[in-house]
């Protein structure tokens, strides 16, 4: 492959937890990372040496492990679907030691839990998926297909729930029941990217014969026993692991690049457990396993999507016939813990709240809220100076939890303090659109080609395709700034860049232009990729003049550029000069 060249950009400081809502899902770096919630990673290693078979006598495994942790071990949030017979995250060798199994078998409490869960285990299915991902660097084609396996479970209405990342970019999905040798073709009904849940169904009546459904339980409390059931790596039959609820809080969803309510448990969640149910001691489902924490200083930390999030997804689908997403308040806010800051903002001693820093211009609340407003309450629930609200006895949680309980299009009452006066507003909530989207949501990437210049819209999958797992360090600084901080000024605004230049005689001297934003064309601003394609196609001027970032310009003769495009497309076997969505 040649020597690795460092791309433009510089390595930033370790991101703080406050920026997690804008830090998208990344892949795992090969160096140790500090123990920070900001290190949200994904591992793709289909050919692990730990899983490969060697010749000769098999090596005996010790009954216990006291070997030192490898220096290369690092903290990883991982999506847990097995890929190509291997896995996204190879579990620690110590995770399934015989010592742990003996201790669990000896505890009568876990025996009681397993006995109650046993009837519901027949509702757990194995999910087989063939994925075909778009090629964001060469948007006119797709990557080589690959397969994965994960878990799912049956709910009422002849439906099956699993994780969204288990069927992402799916081409074919099949399900297999416990104890069966038949795989049934499944249809994907809805994919909730933000909450990492997908809903499937099977048309074949034979699949549903004798199939029982899973019943949902209430949100568990701390130290409640949970049992995770699924088909993880290490075998083909169903697997059961047990633990307790360790923490309940708003946490980062790796796949969704969002923050929603989640459960932390100490039951082992390994690759392939994705989409499997977590049962309480009554045999009711209290969540869906979806990610785990891998770090040299942490052991047995898994995460479960709780029933409030699952119920929201199901009711959203039943209400609208499709998944519409979780609404969000389109603001950035600041804590008001400093007493001088509260006094300067005109807050009374008995008033608490958070200050609005910025408002998304495309959000409906931008019509009534203003920067420096103090949000005192949301839907009648008072907000503390640190942005938390009462949750349960002895617990507090971020006030975004209240927003996530709403549906897109719902109304909410907000009380704000403005210039020492209290105002009450009714706003309509909608899902949030980022200037640089975190997901393509199954849509193929858009592109436009003229004279060898490949124009495309920037997204997180595109940055990952161009700069790899360390795109947050390697991508151009200006693009990263827009990714983290920029807000769209209109609903259809995009960041359009010159992805690459397909070398030809007409573009001599422009070959080195890579991933540079296009800000204008012939004196007009570029709003999005479709507007750029429309202006270029309809241009009758003698020259095409593109204004790029860093004050660069590209000038081409119009007739020559359009004539050369056909030859360039034929040379590179590109079927069309623009994607289908730009032709309409």
Automatic annotation (TrEMBL):
<dbReference type="Pfam" id="PF17815">
    <property type="entry name" value="PDZ_3"/>
</dbReference>
<feature type="region of interest" description="Disordered">
    <location>
        <begin position="1"/>
        <end position="74"/>
    </location>
</feature>
<dbReference type="GO" id="GO:0006508">
    <property type="term" value="P:proteolysis"/>
</dbReference>
<feature type="domain" description="Protease Do-like PDZ">
    <location>
        <begin position="436"/>
        <end position="581"/>
    </location>
</feature>
<dbReference type="InterPro" id="IPR001940">
    <property type="entry name" value="Peptidase_S1C"/>
</dbReference>
<dbReference type="InterPro" id="IPR009003">
    <property type="entry name" value="Peptidase_S1_PA"/>
</dbReference>
<dbReference type="GO" id="GO:0004252">
    <property type="term" value="F:serine-type endopeptidase activity"/>
</dbReference>
<dbReference type="InterPro" id="IPR046449">
    <property type="entry name" value="DEGP_PDZ_sf"/>
</dbReference>
<feature type="compositionally biased region" description="Basic residues">
    <location>
        <begin position="1"/>
        <end position="13"/>
    </location>
</feature>
<feature type="compositionally biased region" description="Basic residues">
    <location>
        <begin position="51"/>
        <end position="62"/>
    </location>
</feature>
<keyword id="KW-0378">Hydrolase</keyword>
<keyword id="KW-0720">Serine protease</keyword>
<feature type="compositionally biased region" description="Basic and acidic residues">
    <location>
        <begin position="63"/>
        <end position="74"/>
    </location>
</feature>
<dbReference type="InterPro" id="IPR043504">
    <property type="entry name" value="Peptidase_S1_PA_chymotrypsin"/>
</dbReference>
<dbReference type="InterPro" id="IPR036034">
    <property type="entry name" value="PDZ_sf"/>
</dbReference>
<keyword id="KW-0645">Protease</keyword>
<dbReference type="InterPro" id="IPR041517">
    <property type="entry name" value="DEGP_PDZ"/>
</dbReference>
<protein>
    <submittedName>
        <fullName>Putative peptidase Do</fullName>
    </submittedName>
</protein>
<dbReference type="Pfam" id="PF13365">
    <property type="entry name" value="Trypsin_2"/>
</dbReference>
<comment type="similarity">
    <text>Belongs to the peptidase S1C family.</text>
</comment>
<feature type="compositionally biased region" description="Polar residues">
    <location>
        <begin position="16"/>
        <end position="29"/>
    </location>
</feature>
């Amino acid at each position: 492959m040649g020597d690795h060249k460092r791309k433009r950009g510089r390595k930033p400081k370790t991101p703080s937890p406050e920026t997690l809502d804008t830090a998208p899902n990344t892949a795992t770096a090969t160096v140790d990372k500090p123990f920070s919630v900001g290190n949200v990673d994904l591992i793709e290693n289909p050919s692990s040496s730990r899983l490969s078979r060697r010749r000769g006598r098999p090596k005996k495994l010790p009954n216990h492990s006291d070997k030192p942790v490898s220096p290369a071990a690092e903290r990883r949030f991982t999506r847990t679907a097995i890929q190509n017979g291997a896995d996204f995250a190879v579990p620690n060798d110590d995770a399934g030691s015989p010592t742990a199994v003996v201790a669990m078998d000896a505890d009568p409490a876990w025996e009681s839990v397993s006995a109650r869960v046993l009837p519901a285990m027949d509702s757990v299915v194995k999910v087989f998926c063939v994925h075909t991902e778009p090629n964001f660097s060469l948007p006119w084609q797709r990557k080589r297909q690959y397969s994965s396996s994960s878990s799912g479970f049956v709910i009422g209405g002849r439906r099956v729930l699993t994780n969204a990342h288990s069927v992402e970019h799916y081409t074919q999905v099949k399900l297999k029941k416990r104890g069966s040798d038949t795989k049934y073709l499944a249809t994907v009904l809805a994919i909730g990217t933000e909450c990492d849940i997908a809903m499937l169904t099977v048309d074949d009546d034979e699949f549903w014969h004798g199939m029982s459904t899973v019943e949902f339980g209430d949100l568990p409390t701390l130290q409640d026993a949970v049992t995770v059931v699924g088909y993880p790596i290490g075998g083909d039959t169903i697997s059961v692991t047990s633990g307790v609820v360790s923490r309940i809080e708003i946490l980062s969803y790796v796949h969704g690049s969002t923050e929603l309510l989640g459960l932390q448990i100490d039951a082992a969640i390994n690759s392939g457990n994705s989409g499997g149910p977590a049962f309480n001691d009554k045999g009711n489902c209290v969540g869906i396993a979806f990610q785990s924490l891998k770090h040299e200083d942490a052991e047995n930390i898994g995460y479960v999507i709780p029933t409030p999030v699952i119920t929201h997804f199901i009711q959203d689908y039943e209400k609208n016939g499709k998944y519409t997403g979780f609404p969000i308040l389109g603001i950035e806010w600041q804590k008001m813990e400093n007493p001088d800051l509260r006094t300067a903002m005109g807050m009374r001693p008995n008033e608490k709240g958070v200050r609005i820093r910025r408002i998304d211009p495309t959000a409906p609340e931008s019509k009534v809220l203003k920067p420096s407003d103090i949000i005192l309450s949301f839907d009648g629930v008072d907000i503390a100076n640190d942005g938390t609200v009462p949750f349960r006895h002895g617990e507090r949680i971020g006030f975004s939890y209240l927003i996530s309980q709403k549906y897109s299009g719902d109304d909410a009452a907000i009380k704000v303090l403005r210039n020492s006066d209290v105002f009450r507003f009714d706003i309509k909530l909608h899902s949030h659109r980022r200037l640089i989207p975190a997901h393509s949501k199954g849509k193929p990437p858009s592109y436009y080609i003229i004279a060898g210049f490949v124009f495309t819209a920037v997204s997180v999958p595109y940055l990952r395709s161009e700069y790899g797992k360390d795109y947050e360090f390697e991508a151009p600084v200006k693009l990263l700034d827009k990714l983290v901080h920029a807000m769209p000024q209109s609903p259809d605004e995009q960041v359009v860049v010159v992805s690459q230049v397909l070398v030809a005689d007409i573009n001599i001297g422009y070959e080195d232009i890579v991933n540079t934003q296009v800000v204008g064309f012939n004196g007009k601003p570029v709003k999005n990729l479709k507007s750029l394609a429309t202006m270029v196609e309809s241009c009758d001027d003698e020259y095409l003049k593109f204004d790029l970032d860093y004050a660069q310009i590209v000038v081409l003769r119009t007739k020559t550029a359009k004539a050369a495009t056909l030859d360039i497309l034929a040379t590179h076997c590109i079927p069309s000069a623009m994607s289908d969505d730009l032709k309409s």
